[in-house]
Amino acid sequence: MNFAWCAGMMACSACTDCINASFKQQVRLAYFVFDGVFVALGILLLYGLSGALSEIGFIADIIGKYVQCQPGEGIDSCLGVSSIYRLSLALAAMHILILLMLLLRNGCSRVFNEEVWPFKILLIVGVFVGCMFIKNDSFQIYSTIAMVAGVIFLLFQIIMIIDLFYQWGVKWVKNYDEGGNGWMYLLIITTVVLYGGALYFIINSFKSFSGIGIGTFACVVNVIFVLISAILVLVRLNPDASLLTAAAFALITSFLTWSGLANMDDPNNELRKAESTTIINLVIGLIFIVVSLIYVSLGDSDETSGQMTTAGVNIPQAVLAEHKNEDDEKRQRLDEEEQAGIARRDAKEIKKELSQNIYQSNSFIYFHLILLFASCYIAMLLTNWGNPVVNGKQFTDFQAGNRSMWMKIGTSWVATVLYVWTLIAPAVCPDRDFS
Predict the structure, then answer these.
(1) Cβ-based burial of 179 (10 A; exposed 0-12, middle 13-18, buried ≥19)
(2) Which of 148, 247, 145, 257 minimizes the C-alpha distance to 201?
(3) For 83-114, what is the HEC assignment?
(4) Helices (H) and strands (E) in the chain, counts
(5) Would the pTM count as exceeding 0.70?
(6) Is the pLDDT assigned to residue 415 strictly greater than 80?
(7) Structurally, how many domains does the chain consist of?
(8) Partner of 241 for a Cys bridge, out of 233, 263, 417, 435, CB 3.0 to 4.6 A?
(9) Does 433 map to a domain?
């Protein structure tokens, strides 16, 4: 997965140095790690502990008598995929509470956002355990809400990844233009590898899905999009476009097309129930969400590509944290004085005042909205856009189906349309500043 490694490196280099990140970026990174730990526990619960827990006598015999998420099925009905919806709801509840506190724009906003971490842990655990007493059927409503929120997060993720890939391409081309001959070989090799990955998914899509449902149509549309984007890069309508960026995007859309078709609900689809399909979908889906959220956490609002501007609003710039400013420099000086043993009685109060200044803007409000949508999207990702109850029965495995197929293929098409627009926008709107 060369493209994911490079994108991850680009996300980390979005700030001058991750160690020298601004205070906002440090707080955002803390939430990324915090949520990531709970998601990891959720994955472990789904694929590692569900069966083991139900075999423990104390849990099955005693707790199972009082906790039955599906009538007559015992504790098993609360585990598996349905537990992911409960965890997703618990994470969403935490971010909703923090959002409400942020709207106050006062000391409570700072405390709830930066402190009381034990309370946040207890809140997530409490909501999760409390949801064990809610029947699985009731989560059908949350499943619909999570699906809508998941689509919103997917669109946001596309915007951030396009912006990230533009920065990646521009930076490497700039390094080559400044005399780094080694960058030429790195550009060529990486571009070939990325297009090679896209070709792999294209060939496998035609091989596995031609003549099955919309398989042939979806494959042909993807190939046309890949060719159009490459041609538009070569004609140089956008001076910041590069084949490296186009190749990375071709790999993403080709994977999404293959992944969507692999979940097509058709008896002739041999990959629908394959374990390898589940693993690839989960791993790459998690890579995408990790890369996009690392970029949101550590990205610098002053270093966006400028390509993803809608109605005069640079979306990545609006949600990314500002790099170090005067307040961050004051905070750093106070920390250095403390480390040097220089005691200042007013140091704590000064730090609180510096933190309070942050909450007069919408930066953290946007950030927690993103994490709220991401919490809902996690339920969709880990269940493959399934439901906590299917045909009246709780299921415990990755669920393939046409809903998942259309979500992924639709995402691929929307992503391509957005990317193609960035390639032609400078020619269509010559008076607009894309720098």
Answers:
(1) exposed
(2) 257
(3) HHHHHHHHHHHHHHHHHHHHCCCCHHHHHHHH
(4) 18, 4
(5) yes
(6) yes
(7) 1
(8) 233
(9) no
